[in-house]
Specification:
The protein is mostly helical. It contains 5 helices and no strands. Helices cover 73% and strands 0% of the residues. The longest helix has 23 residues.
């Protein structure tokens, strides 16, 4: 959870859009994908774990500072799955 929280605080909390975040992650991936792989693994673990109510919603709303149309845990999980997908794409592009 802490790895995901740190990533969200560092890369999404001030991000204007997911496209900006993706661009920043691609820039980092030109040199190393270590951060991306560590974060992806942590995201997958967080998404596979059962958490108390509102945990994921707070993670996205507070730590990522992201406003969702569906601010529930389900909406937050969907958002985090999208972030994981974005990381997979960036890693894949960097590996090619």
């Amino acid at each position: 959870m802490e790895t995901v929280r740190e990533f969200l605080l560092g890369y999404l909390a001030d991000g204007g859009s997911l496209n900006e975040v993706r661009s920043q992650l691609r820039g980092i991936a030109r040199h190393s994908t270590r951060l991306h792989r560590r974060t992806l693994s942590a995201l997958e673990s967080v998404l596979a774990t059962s958490w108390p109510p509102e945990t994921l919603a707070r993670l996205v709303g507070w730590d990522a500072n992201w406003v969702l149309d569906d601010p529930s845990d389900a909406g937050a999980a969907e958002f985090l799955r999208g972030v994981a997908h974005m990381l997979r794409d960036v890693i894949s592009d960097a590996d090619q």
